[in-house]
Structure formats: C-alpha cells, structure tokens
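STRUCTURE:
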C-alpha cells in the first residue's frame, strides 16, 4: 500500500514548520497492528513537527513491513534495540499485560517517555507507572486508552481542571453499543446481533471482555482517576453483562419513554464512589440514548460548570491513532518547553459501592398461572419495595410469558435480596432481568 509521504528523497522526514534549531523527537512504535499501523500512517502522511518515526518493533517483524514508510525507519523484533537507541518517545500499542508492563517500565527507567493505548494495563498499574515516569523526569500519556479518538482524558484533566467534577457517566464500549442498537432497531436476538457484530469486525471472536463489561470498567477506573481523583481498582467496580437483553426489553423500555444502553457510571459522594458498568434504561431524550453503533459518549458533571459531553469514534485504528499522536505531540511540546506535565494525582481512595438508589426494571419470563403477580408483590413488600407499574405485552405464549414490573426508587441491594428469594419460585422460565432506570437527575443517593 502506498500513501502520501512527507519525506525527502533520502528518506528523511521533512522538518515541517519546525525552525532549523528545534529539536526533533524520535519516536518508536512497539506493536505494528491496527493502531500501530494507523499511528505510522499519520506520522508519515502528516509528518507533524517536531516528530520523527525511527523504529518499529514487532515480533516476527519481516511479515509486517510496508512500502510506504521511508527506508530510514528501522524494523526490529528486539525491544532492546529500541531501549539502546536515541528514541525519545516509545509508543506502546501491542496490548496485553506482559511483557508490556516490563517494557514500559524499562523504557521509562532508561529516560524515554511513553504513550500507550492500553486500558487494561493503565487501569491496573497506572499510578505506579506515572510515579516511575515522574521520578525519571519523563511522561506517560494514555489518552487513547479510553474512548479511542474522543479527547476525554485531556478534556477532563486539562479542559475541566477548573471545575470540581463529581460524576462521570458514559457509553465506553462500542461493541456493546453496536449490539444493543442492532437488537433495538432490527428486533433481533442478542445471539444474532453478536454474530453480526463478529462478522463485521465490531466484536472479537471471544467477546467476553466487552459484553460482560470488563473492558468498560477498566476505562471507568481510568476516568475516575483522571476526573474524580479517585484511586480505584477495576476489580472493585461491579459489572453486569448485556447478554440477557432481549428485543422485548426495548419494547417495554420504549413504553416507559426509554431505551437500553450499557452505562458506565461513577459518582463521588463523600468518601463513597458509587460505580458500576451495567445495562440500564436511559430516557430517549438523553444524549446517551442517541449514541448509535460503535460510537462512545462521556458526560461529566461538575459543581460549577454542570454537564459537559464528549462524543465520537471510540475505537478503530485511525481515531485511536489520532489520540496517540496527540499525546506524542503534547509530550514533545512539554519536553521542548522543559516542563513535565502534571500527573493524574489520585487524592482519594474511596469505598466503592454499586448500591445506587434508582427506579428499577424487572422483566420476568414465566409459565403463566393465576396468582403470579400477587406472589411477587408479597415478596417485594417484605423488603419494603413499592411496585410502580406492571406491563404485559399481549399475545405471548402462556408457557413463556414476558411481563414487566417497575419499582419506585429504592436501593439496588434491596432489590437483589428480594430477587434471590424470587429466584426460588417454580414459575420462572429464566432468572428475572433486573435493570436500573436512570432517568432525571442521576445522583447517587
Ligand atoms: N483497535 C482499537 O480500536 C483500539 C482502540 C483503543 C485502544 N486500543 C488498544 O491499542 C492496543 C493495540 O490494539 P490493536 O487493535 O492495534 O491490536 P493488534 O491489531 O492486535 O496489534 C497488536 C500488535 O502488537 C504485536 N504484538 C503483540 N504482542 C507482542 C509481543 N509480545 N511482542 C511484539 N509484538 C507484539 C502484534 O503482533 P502479531 O501480529 O504477531 O500478533 C500486533 O502486530 C491495545 O492495548 C488495545 O486495547 C485499540
């Protein structure tokens, strides 16, 4: 594949608008896959000053070579070559936890700054990597690790630094959003929507990380650190799968003026962080409801500035590479100016809970017989839970009858306790689907 290249005949990158005495910052890309390839394309085609791509490192690198990069770029399968070179900024886009963590540590320890798109790694050991970077007077930037090309990390860290943010809520996983949008607009089952997403490359062969919420909670943990200054491990955030959502749930949700999205939400209240990644009902008029396909959206709320919305392409080689190159440029600028970017300091280690007080959606699938509603109402009343409405779609099979109960606002933990008792009832065809209804002012109570 060929592309427009801003290189001279000897293969040297043009200096662009840089002045002759401005230092050029050498860049290595480690991992030449989807994102690595797009980063190289932008560095090659746009040649943003004052950057120069000097190394590409990948295992079995011979099969990775492309003809559109200048001959001056060194292709290597040894990370030692990168470490011992005059590279200033190492771009880690190979993913995974190891050897990635070791390589990033070694790059920082040898006086190189790092840009990474690796949410799993940053959500687990971001704080240690940041303090290692600082101790070496280097930087580690991870703008591409959340919401791909949407500049939400820099938006929260710099653009909203003047506010006192207390809540972050968003759609952080494009695969889930694509699957839910397909169930909603085509009335297909979850299994069919997933197969379609896999065929189109929107979902991995093993989609567990996405559909069970593990990917989104790693991103939420990063956002909670950057925006809410909370030290939170991803494993402490509740996540629930979208796999039980059926097209009938969209019909019921619509009757309530809502739709269903995988929502990642974190709200700081005193020393408690209310946080969860789960499918939830959101109002049709909310910006969250209008996020289609694989788009991402993040809403932050601050004491002084109120609500701010960031949206755009949450994944894909080129959008993610834009975030990576923006981070490289920011590091080059601060190095040029001789300053070290302020780190994302976590000031609070909160108690993490998912015990939000909201209205609730309970969808049952039952073998029909008289007295079912009365039995459920009795159990809910034992936990002091008030029923708000009961909806039943007409014309369904008596042997697998879906119906809906909505509950007035109460704590999620109470509902879960009642559902444990309800799970023992013999008329249930499937376990009850329990979703929070996130409408109005979504404050943790
Ligand atoms: N793709 C996206 O839309 C997106 C969005 C946001 C963030 N990210 C993050 O960006 C990172 C890269 O994602 P990607 O989609 O570009 O992945 P990818 O297409 O699988 O590329 C990874 C590259 O790294 C190489 N690699 C993996 N392990 C290696 C090792 N131990 N030594 C040397 N090379 C190794 C792979 O080589 P092989 O060809 O041999 O496997 C491959 O070329 C991940 O952290 C991902 O979470 C991706």
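SEQUENCE:
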């Amino acid at each position: 594949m060929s592309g427009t290249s801003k290189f001279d005949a000897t293969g040297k990158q043009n200096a662009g608008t840089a002045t002759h005495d401005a230092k050029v910052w050498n860049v290595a890309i480690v991992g030449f896959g989807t994102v690595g390839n797009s980063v190289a394309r932008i560095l090659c085609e746009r040649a943003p000053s004052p950057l120069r791509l000097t190394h590409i490192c990948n295992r079995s690198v011979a099969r990775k070579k492309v003809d559109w990069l200048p001959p001056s770029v060194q292709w290597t399968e040894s990370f030692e070559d990168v470490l011992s070179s005059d590279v200033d900024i190492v771009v880690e886009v190979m993913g995974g936890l190891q050897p990635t963590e070791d390589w990033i540590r070694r790059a920082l320890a040898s006086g190189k700054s790092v840009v990474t798109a690796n949410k799993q790694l940053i959500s687990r050991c971001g704080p240690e990597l940041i303090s290692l970077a600082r101790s070496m007077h280097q930087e580690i930037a991870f703008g591409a690790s959340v919401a791909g090309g949407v500049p939400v990390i820099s938006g929260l860290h710099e653009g909203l630094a003047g506010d006192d943010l207390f809540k972050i809520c968003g759609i952080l996983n494009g695969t889930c959003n694509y699957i839910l949008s397909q169930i909603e607009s085509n009335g297909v089952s979850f299994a069919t929507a997933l197969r379609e997403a896999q065929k189109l490359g929107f979902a991995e062969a093993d989609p567990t990380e996405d559909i069970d919420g593990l990917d989104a909670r790693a991103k939420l943990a990063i956002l909670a650190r950057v925006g809410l200054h909370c030290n939170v491990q991803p494993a402490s955030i509740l996540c629930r799968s979208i796999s039980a959502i059926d097209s009938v749930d969209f019909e019921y949700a619509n009757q309530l003026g809502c739709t269903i999205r995988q929502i990642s939400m974190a709200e700081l209240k005193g020393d408690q962080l209310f946080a969860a990644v789960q499918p939830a009902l959101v109002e049709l008029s909310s910006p969250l409801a209008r996020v289609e396909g694989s788009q991402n959206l993040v809403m932050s709320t601050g004491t002084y500035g109120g609500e701010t919305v960031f949206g755009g392409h949450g994944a894909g080689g080129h959008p993610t590479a834009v975030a990576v190159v923006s981070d490289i440029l920011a590091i080059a600028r601060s190095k040029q100016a001789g300053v070290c970017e302020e780190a994302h300091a976590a000031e609070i280690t909160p108690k993490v809970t998912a015990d939000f007080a909201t209205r609730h959606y309970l969808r049952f699938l039952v073998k029909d017989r008289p007295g079912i509603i009365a039995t459920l109402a009795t159990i809910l009343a034992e936990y002091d839970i008030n029923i708000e409405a009961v909806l039943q779609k007409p014309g369904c099979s008596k042997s697998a009858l879906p119906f809906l109960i909505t509950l007035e606002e109460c704590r999620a933990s109470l509902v879960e306790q009642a559902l444990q008792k309800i799970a023992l009832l013999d008329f249930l065809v499937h376990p009850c689907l329990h979703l929070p209804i996130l409408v109005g002012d979504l404050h943790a109570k």
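REMARK: Confidence is low (pLDDT under 50) at residues 1-20.
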